[in-house]
Amino acid sequence: MLDNFVYSPRWWRIDVPSEVVLSKDGVGDLLRLLGEKKKQPFFILDTALKGQTRFKLLLERSGDALFLFDATTSEPRTSDVDSLVKSIQERTPDPDVIVGVGGGSVMDLAKAVGICLKNSKTAAEYQGWGFDMAPGVDVWVAPTLNGTGAELTPIAVLRGPEKKLGINTPLVAPKVAVIDPQLSNGVRKFNRFYTMMDCYYHHYEITRSKTSVKDAVLDAEDGLILCRRVLSRDLSRYDLEAAIDSARASILGGSSSTGGRVGASHAISYGLSNSGPTLSHSVAVTISMLGLAALYPDGGYDETLKYLETNAIPTPRARDYGIDASQVDKMTTTALGMDKLWQSHFGEGWEKTVTREFVRNIYEKIVAA
Ligand SMILES: [Zn+2]
User: CA distances (Å), 133 to each of 86, 94, 155, 160, 326, in order?
Assistant: First the structure.
């Protein structure tokens, strides 16, 4: 099964910026490639890898060129990036590659550190699009959670002092992505489930987008089939077949987001994320989808309920994350600013439908749920 995966021909249509290395010994291949290319790496690893034998060699080899990031409490903050950049700059010798091994948060942190090492402003000053930036230090990644697509995307999502927003530039895309579906063996069911829910929403929304290019839609359609297959099973235990499907769907998530665009449930999720500092992206999109039954009559909403039930996951609510009616105004303003996502969902003339009143109603329903 694993051999089939490792030797399978390319299954995505849209070119991706990273060299994709399919592997059945992710840690071994990563260390071998670093050695062959005579790289001087600095490692950013998820704290959760510490107790897992699979990663023992990686932890040993990293020595003190290592930062462990605890992804359980928060996504990476711009302040995490700034302090890590400073401490790496004080080291000798300078690393020529930042290696991120972990879930989406760890990979995003590695991507942000890589670019900020060669650009003088603080990370928060680069949150957004269109900044004039120098190429950073190369970033290599190996995902230990499948479905984020972060192993390929040119975005490093960060929580800043004001808002959660990505550093968006082709310069942050990883140079090398080592994909071994076995690396996700130690992931908790909660993360395995919700990460694939987000992957499913990406593919689902792109297939319905009015502004996505054809090949992105085709990649998203393939991704959707894989996500549905994974989410229809019980994910309480690690299963290689599901992990391989998830790894394939994740790559398609990375490829389809080049030329493809998500829609309304992501627009609504950003308001929720900004108001809920402990709310992870994947749970935020799920809560959004549950408030959008009217916009997604052919899947999205009904399937979300079905997958939650299959995996006995309680229905997530905004109020579990401290979000209430007093934040509806602020969330409405955030979501209204996501013009490209609304345009993706409704096409030209979206402004006629997506009024302040329209968005406010959605949030009122979500906070009352
Ligand atoms: Zn998402």
Answer: 18, 20, 14, 19, 39
Residue 37 Cα to ligand 1 middle (Å): 34
Residue 368 vs residue 258, higher pLDDT = 368
Query: Could you tell me the domains of the chain?
Result: 2-186 (3.40.50.1970), 189-368 (1.20.1090.10)
Q: In angstroms, what is the span from residue 212 Cα to ligand 1's centroid?
A: 16
Average of pLDDT values for 242-249?
A: 98
pTM tops 0.90 = yes
Centre of ligand 1 from the C-alpha of residue 114, in Å: 23
Q: What integer pLDDT is reported at residue 262 of this predicted model?
A: 94
In 3-state terms, what secondary structure has residue 166?
strand
Mean per-residue pLDDT for 7-20? 95
CA of 21 to the centre of ligand 1 (A): 24
**Residue 97 · residue 135 · CB < 8 Å:** no
The tens digit of pLDDT for each residue in 139-148 reads 999 999 999 9
Ligand 1 centroid distance, CA of 267 (Å): 10
State the distance from the centre of ligand 1 to the C-alpha of 201, rounded, in angstroms.
Answer: 7
